[in-house]
Amino acid sequence: MLWFSDLDALTTIDGRADDDVWFGGKKGALYHWDGDTLTRVNGGTRGDIIHLQVLPDGRAWAAALVSQGLPYESRYSQLLAWDGSAWSVVLERIPLTTPSARRTFLATESGDVWFATNTGLFRWSEGALQRLSPERLNEGRESLWANGPHEVWVGIGSTVKRWNGSALVDVTDIPQEEIDTIWGTGPGDVWILPRSTLSGSLILHWNGSQLTSYPIGPGHPDDLWFGMMGTGPNDVWVNHEGKLLHWDGQAWKAMAGPLERAYVLRRVGPDSVWIRGSVDDQVMHWDGQTMRQIPETGEGRVTHAHLRDVWALSPTDVWAVGDSGTALHRDGEGWNVVPTPTQADLTGVSGSSTRDVWAVGKQGVVLHWDGTAWTRVELGTSADLDAVWAATPGFVTIVGDQGTLLQLREGQWSMHSSTVSRLNRVWARSPDEIWVTDIEGTIYHSSGTELSVVLRRRYPQYTSKGLWGMGPESLFAAGLVKQGADWVEFRHPIVGGGCHACVSQFTPMDAWEDPHQRTWFIGEFLTNTGASSPFWLTFVKGRCSGSSRLGPPISPFQPTALHGTGAHDIWSVGTYGRIHHLSY
After folding, report:
1. What pLDDT digit, counting tens, does each position of 326-380 carry?
2. CA 227 remoteness from chain centre
3. How far apart, in Å, are the Cα atoms of 35 and each of 16, 59, 328, 457, 466?
4. Where is 503: in which H helix or E strand?
5. CA distances from 144 to 106, 196, 224 (A)
6. What is the pTM of this model?
7. How far apart are CA 154 and CA 138, in angstroms?
8. DSSP 84
9. Is 397 helix (H, G, I), strand (E, B) or coil?
10. Can you say how many angstroms the Cα of residue 236 is from the centroid of all Cα atoms in its chain?
11. Whole-angstrom Cα distance, residue 348 to residue 350?
12. 8 Å CB contact between 117 and 137
């Protein structure tokens, strides 16, 4: 629903119940969900909401970064408070030194708000801001935890200090390692996670009077913690280097085998924990007694074959095809492997109805689905075929290597070859308006059977960059956008709009436009470290309106194709059998 509002970009979320959830976004956007309705609420700021915290009594706090039109050194943050009826700016400038305030901002039920930054420890209470310590805290780590005005713990380098209501005092018996995470459930239940040492990984616990160490196995200086959460002293979860650990009040136990180095961990209740592996998309669920893997995720995916194309006929009828003759069908309940009469790699799929779906592949393979089974159609070619368009009954266009152009019109197949290049994409508005691209980035148009060159771009990097019509005078093809009579680079500011900086490093692989004239792209984003990460972007009237990562930079996954039917039903596929469902 947020996509249908004027929210530029969702940045943060927090809540205390299903009917009391807050969303924050850019330019001061604040939304409240009451279980039935999403309502825009005035926050009194134009800054980007960078942190939200909702307390058990319903009060909420937010931090907003004011940066628009200001040089970097002049940016500042504001503290906002929700009293149950309205938001207000209660502190015009707060000492947050980075846009990411989640690890340096914490509100307590007593009404205090604590800030841990590289300029010291601050407390805002009863309308006043007080600096309690000038020492540089562990910025960028979860090294701040507070339970009230007399119970605050912070990590400062390799030391832990505790605020007792009047002063910061050292906590003894802490290993001389940088503190990664401090978290607790109450005054007598505080957990401390130091960076691992060569002698072993440790979890430290404070019971109100003494500190206890719990070794959890071999350690390494580069070991990382990926989050800690729980519901009480006897129910704590931690994610460490691919090991999911649970504390039941007596001991730490490994709840799942090593999946990978990174998890996303979500605590729903005492008997419900969801875990998602970010490399292989494995999802697991703990129900209070057993840990089970969710079907169709991780190693339980329907297939591990590379998927090359996807076509959605309806929310309950989706096809994906890929290597070794793989054809997957979603019937509304799940994905199933459907046998095909070939072992050739399938590269394209398209259809006009549940009983009229076409797939093409290497070695001249053409398949037709009649609602019951796939059958092979012999068209007298052995050329590798790359794409098919069959959006209307009785009209099919297939393109491939050696300039191959196959067409079905009025029940008759014909074969043409207007070029020697490898044609790799096809899109048609009607039998009289057909668009084709080749692997060198050349764009062709046909009003019948012959192809005419519209724009020649001999850039091999545009080998597979999508082809889709986006309106009467708009087309996305080979990394270009047709705007009327002009062809513009996708990276051009006119297209990039508000997020031109990120678009300039985004390489689109495929495109699709939904019924609301939102244009969706999948592709790869080049990070600052040089690694590529799979992403999708969406545009409204030429301006970037949203983005999301489909996998981490270390993921081997590469997106290949995109298609959908409308709101809440957009599908993308890629290598290693990955399927993503994009909804908004």
Report:
1. 999 998 778 999 999 999 999 999 999 999 999 999 999 999 999 999 999 999 9
2. 18
3. 12, 17, 36, 52, 39
4. helix 500-503
5. 8, 19, 17
6. 0.66
7. 8
8. S
9. strand
10. 26
11. 7
12. yes
